[in-house]
Amino acid sequence: MAEESKFNTYRKRVKNFLTFKNFNNLPNFIEILEKGLEKELSFNASKSDTPIPVEELPIDLSLRKSGIIRKVYEKIFPVTHVFQISYKFNGVFMENFMPITNDDFIGRGGYKFVYKLPWNQVVKVGKSKLGSDPLFGSLFKEVSKNLEMYLKPEEMELKNYLQSRCFKHSSKELLDFKFKRLGLERLHYWKVKTLLPDLVLPTKFFMGLRSRRTPVGIPQTTITPCDNQILIPGKHLKEFVKLTEKVKQNPLEDKFLPKWKLNFDTHKFGNVPVSKLKKIAFNFHRVIEATRYLAQKEKLILDLHSENIIIMLPEFELRIFDFHVFDEHLYDPGENGLSPEEEHINTINEFINSFELGKHPEE
Q: Residue 74 is part of which domain span?
């Protein structure tokens, strides 16, 4: 009997291994993606941190400017807050209240509005986009085929619940598109984070509910993908540029479309030590290798510009806070016959060369 019992134990272990039963305990994609985020993005509402002065923030004032129509709209329908939403207790569950106002608006990109939160973090609110946008290429199709991998169970339940309450087929399709876009944002982040783990700002993605106040007192709400990041003191890379040397072009372009060499100003925000310049240059070379890898191995273009790279102050550390990737064939072609990634690489190399590190070989 003892021998038979021992045999049955071994047989059960082998069966469990062959059926991959124990593999259910392995962490899934989102658990790996969000590992450590709770600690990175935690805050105590009862203990207000000293706000980072506005002049120390990476705010591009030109990106805050809006047309007259947009200004009027924001005046009549001001934003008030954002909630993270999911499906719990048999309905829509709202948590993580984030108060925002028009005065908290600190920038915008092609796909998101950025608002400063009271606790030295930012919330990025997704803009409305059409499915024909270049952002929604092969990776969007990949997410669509296996949506459960890129959404949490409560997000999938929320999607199904909201769709069940829609009467129009178009409304159901729009919700489906928004949840797939949320999954796509996570996949983009993963693509860049795995290549440059220490340079990418920790980011939490979630489905958000943005609210606006209306003249009649009834809130106007919009469901849209959002993300949350820490707010760091620093400046956009473009703010370190000094435009002192023109690039030679034909007379017509020189007059109406002037171009300048991207020289890095090492004294604009305090004297940058040579050791820090060398570290920035080293990290830029890592960014170049990541850009080449994505282009050559995966046919993807890392959409990297001087607007989405931050130099932290006073540490003078390089950080990337925006990380969209596009299909090579959907991205705007480079100038002078260059591929898009080579154009980006040339721009980065131009910055590195302006450091003039060759003058300080032993420092």
A: 51-231
